[in-house]
Amino acid sequence: MPEDAMSEVAADVSRCSWAGADPLYRHYHDSEWGRPVADDTRLFEKICLEGFQSGLSWITVLRKRERFREVFFGFDIPRVAMMGDADIDRLLQDAGIIRHRGKIVSTINNASRALEVKKEFGSLATYFWRFEPRPEDRPVLVTRDVVHAMPQTEASKAMSKDLRKRGFTFVGPTTCYAFMQAMGLVNDHFEDCFCRAEVETQRAAFTRPGT
């Protein structure tokens, strides 16, 4: 669904408080965040954009996401892996994205590392979903205080450690946990959020890659 097709869900329903009042952010919360993803391109895009978010807010990245998709060829992994110095110089002049040399270089590097992971595991999805935490390792209640108290978890630390061992960059444990929350490896919608039950149903029906 295009980002200009804002959520039709009523504004007064109960949501996670971080969704705020911005229509773009609410649409992202209502239709994407926490819903399980098995598509390699979306997973690669997200791990890269989480890296760009480092030190910033997600809404800053979200507002620039369409331009990121344009300049990184739809986050097509082989195509991004082929980008070089001329592309880096060009992107550093593009005000439509976050112009941070290290994060741009990281995205290109991570594309090459992602190709290696796909060769080993068959897909990025199979690799990433190996880090889904066990239900017994998750909090019983998901409230604002609980979520804010766990910016990283043992599972995200394990993912971060393994990614860095494989040569990925800008993949610290907090970044990895934000990735896990967004891609549905965990359901961190608050208990009173209207999305929580929907996401639980989707996760229950979701076939884990590699199983």
From TrEMBL:
Domain of life, source organism: Bacteria
Pfam families: Adenine_glyco
PANTHER family per record: DNA-3-METHYLADENINE GLYCOSYLASE 1, DNA-3-METHYLADENINE GLYCOSYLASE I
Species the sequence originates in: Devosia nitrariae
Protein name according to UniProt: DNA-3-methyladenine glycosylase I
